């Protein structure tokens, strides 16, 4: 048995178990492929994991540390000043819990009985409205300055789920969130033991109207006795089908 992949998982972590929650990533999995979602959450048979993005995680940690310095001082970060926005890092009493994996921002969705949760990267405030902020890191020849790729829909949904979760917790949340997008430069003349990043602030106006209906669909999927249909573009299910031929 692989030390990195063990199935099925313990029942407490499956749907109906005392530790199970509907995370932001699970919602995205449902939208991608209801069958993979059902196998994961009902049967405890998750997809094989990809390689961890340790550089991305390091960038996230460094950004949080940097913004926390300005949060503690109650002042703006230079990036906020550079883009001419009046927001500053929010010193909310629950910020540390809301940013912690396996805790995050959580709410009980009364119509379905589901506990929905997601861990945010950062929270800013402008006047009386909170602003959801997500950190992204990649490496490209040109810096990322806009979210115009088809696969960026996942980033946008992520932002909208976080906005919805915070509103369920009683916060006034701006429709406009921000992505702090860090693009590593692969074409520098020398490595010299460091990667240089271009950092851009990308605004996104979210619309979380889809969340409520999706939660209802997810509840129906979880309670279904038969395995759901395959998603339209699921590479995992396509692979399984090819192997079974």
Automatic annotation (TrEMBL):
Residue span(s) of domain PD-(D/E)XK endonuclease-like: 87-241
Pfam family, one: PDDEXK_1
Protein name per UniProt: PD-(D/E)XK endonuclease-like domain-containing protein
Species: Candidatus Uhrbacteria bacterium RIFCSPHIGHO2_02_FULL_53_13
């Amino acid at each position: 048995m692989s030390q990195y992949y063990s199935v099925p998982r313990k029942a407490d972590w499956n749907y109906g178990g005392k530790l199970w929650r509907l995370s932001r990533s699970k919602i995205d999995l449902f939208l991608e492929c209801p069958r993979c979602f059902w196998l994961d959450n009902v049967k405890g048979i998750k997809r094989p994991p990809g390689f961890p993005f340790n550089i991305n995680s390091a960038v996230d940690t460094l950004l949080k540390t940097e913004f926390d310095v300005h949060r503690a001082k109650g002042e703006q970060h230079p990036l906020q000043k550079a883009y001419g926005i009046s927001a500053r890092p929010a010193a909310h009493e629950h910020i540390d819990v809301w940013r912690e994996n396996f805790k995050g921002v959580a709410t009980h969705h009364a119509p379905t009985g589901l506990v929905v949760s997601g861990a945010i990267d950062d929270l800013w405030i402008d006047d009386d409205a909170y602003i959801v902020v997500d950190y992204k890191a990649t490496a490209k020849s040109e810096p990322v300055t806009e979210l115009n790729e088809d696969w960026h829909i996942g980033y946008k949904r992520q932002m909208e789920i976080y906005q919805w979760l915070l509103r369920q917790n009683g916060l006034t949340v701006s429709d406009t969130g921000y992505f702090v997008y860090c693009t590593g430069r692969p074409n520098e003349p020398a490595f010299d033991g460091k990667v240089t990043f271009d950092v851009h602030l990308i605004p996104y106006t979210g619309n979380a109207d889809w969340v409520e209906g999706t939660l209802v669909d997810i509840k129906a999927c979880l309670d279904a006795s038969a395995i759901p249909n395959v998603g339209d573009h699921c590479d995992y299910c396509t692979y399984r089908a090819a192997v079974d031929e």
